Every structure is written in C-alpha cells, then in structure tokens.
Predict the structure of FadR/GntR family transcriptional regulator.
Amino acid sequence: MGLSTVRTGRVCDDVMAQMERLIASGEWPVGSKIPPEPALVAALGVGRNTVREAVRALEHAGLLEPRRGDGTYVRATSDLGAALLRRARRSTAMHVLAVRSSLERDAAAAAALNRTEADVVAIREAADARRAAAPEGGDRGVFVAADLAFHRAVIAATGNPVLVDLYAGLTEAIQRTVAEIAERDDDPAAFPGHDELAAAIIARDPVAARAAAENYLGAARAIAERDR
C-alpha cells in the first residue's frame, strides 16, 4: 500500500503527507478508490479518528471525494488540480478546447524533445489501445477512455510535473468534451492527427508533433463549432 507506521510528531499531518505522496506519485491514481479505513488504520498504526481527520482534510482540499455507500476516491493529484477541476466543470466545450490548444501544441513539441524510451513504450501502447477501441458499433465510453489515456501519455512524456498536474485537473472537462465530439462525429476512430503525433514524438520531431496536435485540435474545433 506504500504507507508506513506513524510514530512521532504531529500524527495527523504525517498521515496526510503520506496520503498526498501516494496520490502525487500515482500509486493512488485519480479515479481510484483508496483503501478502506480499517486497512489505513492497520498500515499507519494510528487510531480511526486520526485517519478520519486526515481523510476529511484531504476531502476539503479537493484531493479526495467521498461517495456515500461506496468509499472514498481520489479526485485530483494536488490542490491546484482540485481548483482546476471545480472550474472546468462550469466550462463549455469551446472553452476547454481553447485551453487544450494552448497546452497540447507546446506539450506535443516538448514530448518530442524530452521523451524517454519508457515514454515511447507507453505512447505506442496507448496509441494501439486507442485504435483497438475504435467505435464501429462498440462502446464509445471505452474509446473515450482510450483517447484520454493516449493524451495523458503524451503529457507525461514532456517530463513537466506542473503540466501533468494542470492536465490532470482538466481531465473531467476534457473527458466530457471528447465524449461530446465523439458522439457528433460520424467516425471518431478516423479522427486525424493521433497516429501522426505518436510517430512524431517517437522520431523526436517537435515541428511535426506540434502540427499533428494542431490537426486533431482543429478537427475537434470544427465539429464543436458546426453543432453549436
């Protein structure tokens, strides 16, 4: 689980710090359910009240989200991500696409310059999964999830933790707009730019990567504007 027994100091602060590290590192990824209270108590060696206090504090900070009758889920990786999430929920598709354009064109170029061999593997796998999830009568929700996973792999390849946090905070809004556009598009599987982006990043070609990002973002804007 990645937690260690708390022995000294301000106990609740230590518990919160350990939980925040697990969230920030991705060991507790956004959207996942954290371990139940008894498991946390046992792993940390503290009382139930301490665990509850720490969880409540992270809920107030926006990192965790309680779901009645189900458990507590990771909502954001940081305070910044939580604030972005709250704001993005009130944004239109065009607003989200405008922000994506600002972030993803430069991110594509940065990924091409900074990607590691591990990033290459992740991007190839994500591109293959996105292609395999092509709708053609299948579940569009699966396709949307695969599309998001591909873009997260690209963002991760930039090596910029601030950008990763920014993008994570926008995930819910991006997912909503991708789903809307996929629903309006006759053939979302043929949406341009994604395979080209993967190839450009792998080839370390920032110019081609930026052009590929502009290609898919432009196509998304055209669909969003057409149906307004």
